[in-house]
Amino acid sequence: MTYNFSMQCIDQIINSAAKTYYMSAGQLNCPIVFRGPNGAAAGVAAQHSQDFTVWYAHCPGLKLYDRTAVYINSLKHCSLLKLCLALKSFDV
């Protein structure tokens, strides 16, 4: 499944989970990691080839890690997931 299906739950991602920390004055946290393919790929039609990276990157409360970034490429995926969870924040 591609990351385009995150649009089905975007309200919960942006307006609930990402803002929980701010709405609770820093008392509550919602550390969670979403991982999945994003963008154009073979076998996915036009409606499943959008790239929502920039959209999520501009949402307050979200931290976005793109595995195609140069400094991230040197990290193993397991290490990246551990890093995201250790930050105790909302990561995409």
UniProtKB/TrEMBL annotation:
Cofactor(s) required, per the database record: thiamine diphosphate
Any one GO BP annotation for this protein: pyruvate decarboxylation to acetyl-CoA
Keyword Protein biosynthesis: no
Superkingdom, natural source: Eukaryota
GO cellular component term of the entry, any: mitochondrion
Main location: mitochondrion
Documented EC number(s): 1.2.4.1
Function: The pyruvate dehydrogenase complex catalyzes the overall conversion of pyruvate to acetyl-CoA and CO2.
Protein name listed in UniProt: Pyruvate dehydrogenase E1 component subunit beta
Organism: Brugia malayi (Filarial nematode worm)
Designated gene of the protein: bma-pdhb-1.2
